[in-house]
Design a protein that fits this description.
This protein is an all-alpha fold. It has 8 helices and no strands. The protein has a single domain, classed as I/LWEQ domain.
Amino acid sequence: MSDENEVEGLFLTKGRLEGLSDGIFAFAMTLLVVGLDLPDKSTIVQSTGYAMDTLVSLESDFLHYILAFLILGAFWLSHHTQLHSVKRIDKMYVWLNLSVLLFVALLPFSTSFSGDFPKVPVGAMVFEASLFAIGIAMFCQWLYATQGHRLVEPTLDEGYIRYIRISNLVVPFVSVVGIIIALTGVTWSSVVYLTLPIVGYVVYRLAR
């Protein structure tokens, strides 16, 4: 008898999908550090002053690296939680999951781009647009899986389903705020993500 979580015609089980997702999340989180570019070795001056200036020049890169790593970690935890509630998968769900992973894999580039253009608003907007896309893709994936309890147990609590749906929109909401701020010419709009713990807590309290 075939695995009930196996996609008919694809021979892809839920476990294989989880393995692929975990691998891409882990690879993207590791690749983020590549965006911390050091000057060419031939131009490096062996002095404390030069070393300190180099560290200061990487301030924007470090900020975006830390933000991207922590937010991507939160996305991974949310993704894992959602997949735990999904009891079976189909082809549409697989493609929706791949759309999430598409934007996850793109985030290291977006993070590096924004770090390289700290004084240009479009740099921050690229970063914020990438996080917006991941959040919306995860929202659509969860919405598809839970609408009419399509891929989850019929007994799964509606309040829990609603809470996860709203939670998936927290990062996209903050990202839109960041993009709007960037459109005004502000170059430090990415610091808006520092409000995520507060916004997330408010959503949690309201959903209880």
